[in-house]
Design goal:
single chain; 3-stranded antiparallel sheet; alpha+beta
Length: about 750
């Protein structure tokens, strides 16, 4: 009797203390995934009494699943309500101290688990800014009670060895009435630990859904129902591991549609396999002139000339495309265009108001493209080179930035395809990069002296914002750099360019694929992370393998892509629902501003004059995006260096007004030097002007209706109507240049 009264009194005091703690205690915020927050799978730890819960493998994942340690809640940099957790449980030691020992141990009450704030807040027993996250009788609540009652043990540190997600077709109860229920998939997550043990951790796994994916999520049994056809991605997170789960629902409910007959080219095998799984009917092959225009723009950045079009049409069909691709990649136009593209990728821009440095960098890039220099050699030069930046081009890569952190972000973006800047202030919420990785890479680059004479030393330091101590030089995600007589940058660059390290090859192969196909297998191409899986993982692996085996050179892989059937498809898709990531049809690509300006002048036959030298120049040869050029700025040129990505023409009001009334088009069009001006003066037949204009501008012949319409509309070819005829032709050609057929690569 006395014992029960004492216990009753203790509970009253405990609850009073808990309520008193609420004064001045800021509310937490829940993760904005309510369907995930209430997840209670059938197979779970709470229902398995033989497994005694411990902090690292049970409680911490549970907090992650319910959003308690998300960036919007206690995982924020400063926490919430005097209660801070590491983002997504990235620092278990800190989190255990915060929950069990800080605040005088009041967040858990071993003698009375029911009164623990860790339990009463998420179950709604006391006010909670994150609202009620789970029921008092839920498996999550039971798990917390059991752990607290056991004394809130930390347990032995369990290292997660692997995590697998199994997909099983699920017979939905509503399958007889709901057609979408036939596309339900149950997920089961199994964790394997370093000690060899494995168990079902579905209950402790956070499943994150893209809001645009249109997946109906059933938290009670971890079932995803796909409500629309296509490719869907669900991200499963347990402890420090993230696994993307790709789900496919066919577009053709009656069954898969076999793709059109394809070659045995390994690119087509990979693309066609997914197309068949999705029941998609791929677009037919583009006609020969469409393909020719496309490949000329993609490999040289130029429209094909009249002479090239004629020669191509008269070329024997056998190995015709192989010969022309080889011819394009061997041309000076290829060197000009890919110098421009590589310069954009590296972020070349004006360097410290020293044109000698900028020009030296540009020359080095051009020489590398011209000789098809292996990319790892280029990377090592860009990272390691020292000396006079006015003479040694690659030293200027270090001068594109002003400090080690910016240098680390540039290196990660360009060579690792990673946006690492989030890890400056906290561990990356959607990737594996930690603050130690970010500041460790900055420490690798801290000894770079970025004056005209570039030097590498081991003297520089940066502060790790997590520890407030000097950061230890580190290869991100791999290891700390040893002091063994080899410089930090040499150790990092050796790792990055090692043939056994697939990262560099994957990132560059993806960029080359994107340049040719209009989007990357990983998109955006600088966002390689576990939560952004490639659309075709095996194909990306093969592209990287081919790129490495060809010596990391541009031309061989670009040639392989150009000669695939996937590249040669028409851009006319029969189904507008089809996502571009399936590559079932060619993607229409807007011409970059420089390419568009070159195309306008090429089709009109009017050269671009370089203001500095007074000599003819291609717009793509203006590779410094910060060099003043009002025309390119109007067309949407980016001047910010590597942060631009692939530039596309501006579609704003200013661009349209200049296109209509300014000198971008009207300057060369009204110059009196266009290809058609002599024909107007000589009263050339309308048919000749129309046919030639179509070939020059659209790289095709006019249809019969088009030819008849324009022949009839054009003023007569007589001296009396020459002025009217010239004005009509100018307006007509301006209209042709304004069409999406001209301004896009399709």
């Amino acid at each position: 009797m006395l014992h029960s009264r004492m216990l009753w009194l203790f509970r009253i005091v405990a609850r009073a203390v808990a309520l008193a703690m609420l004064v001045g205690y800021a509310h937490a915020y829940s993760d904005d995934l309510p369907s995930v927050a209430s997840h209670t799978a059938v197979s779970n730890t709470s229902a398995n009494p033989s497994h005694e819960p411990v902090f690292d493998t049970d409680i911490l994942p549970l907090l992650t699943k319910h959003g308690c340690n998300s960036g919007a809640c206690h995982g924020a940099a400063v926490g919430r309500g005097n209660f801070a957790l590491s983002l997504f449980g990235s620092d278990p030691d800190r989190d255990y101290r915060s929950i069990v020992h800080e605040y005088q141990g009041r967040r858990i009450m071993v003698a009375d688990p029911e009164s623990s704030l860790l339990l009463t807040k998420p179950t709604g027993g006391v006010a909670h800014g994150g609202n009620e996250l789970f029921d008092t009788d839920s498996n999550s609540a039971q798990l917390l009670r059991r752990w607290i009652a056991r004394g809130a043990p930390r347990g032995d540190a369990a290292r997660l060895q692997s995590m697998t997600v199994q997909q099983d077709a699920f017979s939905h109860p509503a399958s007889n009435t709901d057609p979408t229920a036939n596309h339900s998939i149950r997920m089961t997550v199994t964790a394997t630990f370093a000690d060899g043990t494995s168990r079902d951790v579905t209950e402790q796994t956070l499943f994150t859904l893209d809001p645009s994916s249109e997946i109906q999520w059933s938290p009670t049994d971890a079932v995803a129902t796909l409500t629309r056809p296509g490719r869907h991605v669900v991200i499963a997170r347990y402890m420090d591991r993230v696994v993307p789960v790709v789900l496919l629902r066919p577009f053709n409910e009656a069954g898969a549609v076999a793709p059109t007959p394809s070659t045995s080219h390994w690119i087509d095998v990979a693309i066609d396999q997914q197309i068949e799984q999705l029941g998609i009917k791929p677009a037919p092959a583009a006609n020969s002139l469409e393909w020719f225009r496309r490949v000329s723009l993609d490999l040289t950045g130029r429209l094909p000339t009249l002479e090239q079009l004629s020669e191509f049409q008269n070329d024997p069909e056998e190995n015709q495309r192989e010969r022309w691709v080889s011819r394009f990649v061997s041309s000076e136009a290829f060197v000009d265009y890919w110098t421009y593209r590589i310069a954009r990728m590296l972020g070349l821009r004006a360097i410290a108001s020293e044109p000698e440095a900028t020009n030296a960098f540009a020359r080095w890039i051009r020489d590398a493209v011209a000789t098809d220099r292996p990319f790892p050699e280029m990377v090592r030069d860009l990272l390691r080179s020292e000396g006079d930046s006015h003479q040694i081009g690659p030293t200027n890569f270090a001068r594109l930035v002003n400090d080690p952190r910016s240098h680390a972000e540039l290196v990660a973006n360009v060579f690792m395809g990673t946006r690492m800047q989030c890890a400056n202030c906290h561990n990356h919420p959607f990737d594996r990069w930690t603050q130690d990785d970010y500041h460790g890479l900055a420490a690798v680059l801290a000894g770079v002296e970025r004056g005209r004479i570039v030097r590498h030393t081991n003297r520089g330091q940066v502060t790790n914002l997590r520890t407030r101590e000097p950061a230890l030089p580190r290869i991100p995600g791999v290891r700390y750099i040893e002091s063994n007589g080899v410089t930090r940058i040499e150790q990092f660059s050796d790792w990055l360019t090692d043939a056994e390290n697939p990262l560099l090859a994957r990132v560059m192969a993806n960029r080359l694929w994107r340049a040719m196909m209009g989007r990357g297998l990983v998109e955006p191409s600088d966002d390689f992370r576990e939560t952004n899986p490639p659309s075709h993982p095996e194909l990306l692996d093969r592209l990287a393998h081919e790129y490495r085996d060809s010596g990391y050179r541009l031309r061989p892989l670009l040639t392989q892509i150009a000669l695939s059937n996937a590249y040669a498809r028409s851009s006319q898709s029969e189904d507008p629902r089809i996502d571009s990531s399936f590559f079932s049809a060619a993607i229409r690509k807007p011409m970059p501003p420089e390419v568009l300006l070159d195309a306008v002048h090429d089709v009109l036959g009017v050269e671009i004059q370089d203001a500095k030298s007074g000599k003819p120049i291609r717009a793509v040869q203006w590779i410094d995006p910060s060099e003043p050029n009002p025309t390119l700025d109007i067309l949407g040129r980016c001047s910010r260096g590597f942060s631009c990505g692939d530039p596309v023409p501006s579609q704003g009001l200013s661009m349209h007004l200049h296109w209509m009334n300014g000198d971008v088009v009207n300057g060369p069009l009204l110059s009196g030097k266009t290809f058609f001006d002599p024909w107007i003066m000589s009263d050339a037949p309308a048919r000749r002007i129309v046919e030639t204009a179509y070939l020059r501008i659209l790289s095709r012949e006019p249809t019969r209706d088009e030819l008849t319409r324009w022949e009839n509309a054009m003023p007569a070819a007589t001296p009396k109507f020459r002025n009217a005829r010239q004005a009509w032709v100018q307006d007509w050609i301006w209209g042709m240049l304004s069409t999406s057929e001209f301004q896009s690569n399709h």
